[in-house]
Amino acid sequence: MEVLVTYDNGHRFAATCHGHTVYTGKGDDGDTSRDGMWPAQMFAAALGMCIGGYVASYCEHHGIPYDDLRIEVDRETADAPSRTTRVTAKIILGAKLSKKDKDAIIRVADRCHITNSIREGMDVVCLLGDASDEEANDET
């Protein structure tokens, strides 16, 4: 298991990976310090952060300052079924860029892991486990 998602409270869930925990949704316990973005917003944030990582790596490798790098992510949605239909990620750097660097940065951003996963398609498989599955895992 790479990420463990657990119910916290109200509509709040916690996702833990390698000792790091993030919260999504809103609880009904009054503890707003653990409230977070809704999962679909976290999806858009993850895409923006993935793009940012690729762009920062390119800039570092090519000597382009990226201390002011930011990615403004907008999402369009639809219902029936509920989904994100379009994500626009606007990359903003404080550095002056040549046309060659601008084009290269867009190419790099378009190849981030999450963008590739969405474009190439992926299978999402949901399985239902029960307490006996956990007991079997505890014994190994």
Subunit arrangement of the protein: single chain
Proportion of residues in β-strands: 25-35%
Name the helix and strand elements from N-terminus to C-terminus, one letter apiece: EEEHEEHHH
Inertia-based shape: elongated
Mean pLDDT: 94
CATH class of the largest domain: Alpha Beta
Radius of gyration: 19 Å
Number of strands: 5
CATH architectural designation of the largest domain: 2-Layer Sandwich
Question: Unreliable segments (pLDDT under 50, ≥5 consecutive)?
Answer: none
Notes on the protein architecture:
- The chain has 140 residues and is α+β, with helices and mostly antiparallel strands.
- It is built from four helices and five strands.
- The chain has helices spanning 39-61, 99-109, 113-120, 131-139, and strands spanning 4-9, 12-17, 20-24, 70-78, 83-92.
- The strands form two sheets. It has a three-stranded antiparallel sheet, with no helix packed on it.
